[in-house]
Specification:
Blueprint: H1 12-38, H2 42-68, H3 80-92, H4 94-108, H5 116-120, H6 123-135, H7 146-158, H8 163-187, H9 192-238, H10 240-253, H11 258-269, H12 272-284, H13 288-291, H14 294-313, H15 321-347, H16 351-380
Length: 382
Amino acid sequence: MTDVDSRPTPSPSDIERYKRNLQDEVDGAALYRLLADAEKDESLQHVFLKIAEVEDRHRELWERLIREAGVEVPDFKPTWRVRTLGWLARRFGTQAVAPIVSRMEVSAQTMYDEQPEAVAERLPADERSHARLFREMGRSRRIPEPGVIAQIEGRHRGASGNALRAAVLGVNDGLVSNLSLVMGVAGASPGRDVVFLAGLAGLLAGAFSMALGEWISVRSSAEAYERQREIERDELELMPEEEEEELTLIYQAKGFTREEAKELAARIMEDPETALDTLLREELGMTPEEAGNPWVAAIASFVLFAFGAFVPLLPWLFGGGAVAVTLSAVLSGLALFGAGAVITLFTGRSVWFSGGRMLLFGLAMAAITFGIGGLIGVGTGI
């Protein structure tokens, strides 16, 4: 522990820094308790609760420093970002938010490196430990059942993608592209029916294009997975000893001892299907979940894009002219701000910054296309 008397009197900027750190630790402790509540695996629950206890100790440090500076300790509550992540974890499982939390921990692992009060209490080491825990969450230092290994490793691999992020980007693509199209056509003042028809055509064309592209992409991945699975199956039948030794070496590289790795590999090889799935995952980094269902992906892309594209088109269902243009811009602006706000779950930036940036860029593009449409309308006599 540090000597309070030997520490210099904190400046106003130091006190503000203490408060920011306190909010971060309040968020951290709350987040990991929410993840523990949502997690069904007891071992992972234990990990989350242990991290929450560490965050509590960090919080106590900043509360103490604020009190010693003669300032009232703020009664901080978890931010909306943490509450939203907790809600998503309860609804969709902790795996759904694991990529976001992992990025949060990686970005936070150096936050205390230049803060002397934190260094004295070994907070930087704790933060690096948290980041390392999330990187290694898919690895086990004990010998679990093969099915558990597959489940945990699948969790680790799944962190490379994020369905929520894809959904937000899909809606945003439809919103921005069709807003620009509708405003471009409306700028030429061709009449309500023409604007609506153009917007509807843009919605359908974009949605079908997104769906087809996603179908081809996912189907190609599935075909590659199926081909590799057949190759691996042949190797497993022809050279089981070599495949078992390869698994042993892989688990040694993960940190197991030679004896632990050999035992784990032998147990996995007892079930041919488990062995096949494990070899594909460990050697090639391929899982059937990553290949996915092309029809599900295509339908999801179609619906998400169409949902976003429908927002600027909605006012034209009921009217036209300046009123429809204004309502289309307002509704789209609100949706753009909302999309930017959701993105802060991944970036950690201010809601006002991210939402405002998305709003500014989206409306700027709409204004440009509206102006171009107006010039074309004048030039063609529409």
